[in-house]
Amino acid sequence: MNLRRSCLATLAAGVLVVVPLAASAEIVTLPPDGGNQKASISQWIGLVEVNITYNSPKVTAPDGTDRTGKIWGQLVPYGMANLGFGTCGEACPWRAGANENTVFRVSHDVKVEGQPLSAGSYGLHMIPGPEEWTIIFSKDYTSWGSFSYRQSEDALRVKVKPAKCEYTHWLTYEFTERRLDRATAALKWEYLQVPWTITVDNALGQYVENLRREMRNAKGFNWEGWQEAAKFCLDNKTNLKEALGWAQNAVSLPYIGQENFYTLRTLAEAQAANGLVAEAEATTQKAIDYPGVNPIELHGYGRELLARGEKDKALKVFEANARKHPNVWPVNVGLARGYAAVGRTQEALKYAKLAVQQAPDDVNKKAMQKLVDDLQVGKTVK
């Protein structure tokens, strides 16, 4: 820590007194010590926000010396260290950055390397080692570095393995893996990275709970909100019983619900997901027959069913589209893909060739010609 001092002049008993102030008591904003620029990175894991705020030293020393090969085990010593200042003593961890505390913040409870960590802010410290590192999350996040670190304030310690990485001049934190329910955070500096995993046990459940809240405010005063909430649950195969109620609201909730192609489609899916087979078939047919449905909408519905592996249902939609809108570009594309999906190759070829002739541009023409070529040589077409 740089103990630069500034002076404050005060008048006491007629005598001018000069009082030195430590850097931490500065009353103006100055550049960071050592040119270690402050940085912050955030990542959402579903609805959970994770943030790391740190000060970033570089491989080159302030005087220009290249410290490559002299960072780990030297500039940053292995194991606990005597920092020569503060109340930590002779067994102090590394502050995982420069200057004041590196701070790790998380908006909800998570697990780090499989161990629970409550929502909150933590001082992030590390104990480096050639083969294994310990990452420490301290309840004290307002101190300057590790100089006053106390093990009794640890909220969590986890052990991780370091790994090689691309050259990173400035010490940097990154999120190297990102999914709905997990992310991997990594400290990177010089040629070394230290990754650790952060997981959310019930990411989908958090979204469902948030949808429940949203449906009770302004977002629940339109059919689109109810329809999207139901569709989310159906797409993720979760909360299916409540999703059926939400889908019904999208269609018929007084003053809000609206019967249309999309709300009927979603209601049919919700009925099927809840074992109401006959009702689902009737609602699906009602959606397909709904006045004003255009060929692109029906084609999109069929492609969505194909993507879910529901080949027979998809073909029924494509055939219904052909009855309503015969011999047009998207309809013939759908028939070609629908028949190909169920193994009716000759019929698929017939409509694929028609679609080549009707293609609105070169990109689509080439795509359909490839479909024709694949069908002619017996390739499996998805």
Description:
The protein is an alpha+beta fold and 382 residues long. The protein is 35% helix and 26% strand. It is built from 10 helices and 12 strands. It has helices at 203-214, 223-235, 240-252, 261-273, 277-288, 295-307, 311-324, 329-341, 345-358, 362-376, and strands at residues 5-12, 15-22, 37-45, 48-56, 102-106, 110-112, 115-117, 120-127, 133-138, 154-160, 163-178, 182-199. The strands form 3 sheets. Strands 3-4-5-8-9-10 form a 6-stranded antiparallel beta sheet, with no helix packed on it. It has a 4-stranded antiparallel beta sheet with strand order 7-6-12-11, with no helix packed on it. β8 and β9 form a beta hairpin. The longest helix has 15 residues, at 362-376. Residues 1-24 have low confidence and may be disordered.
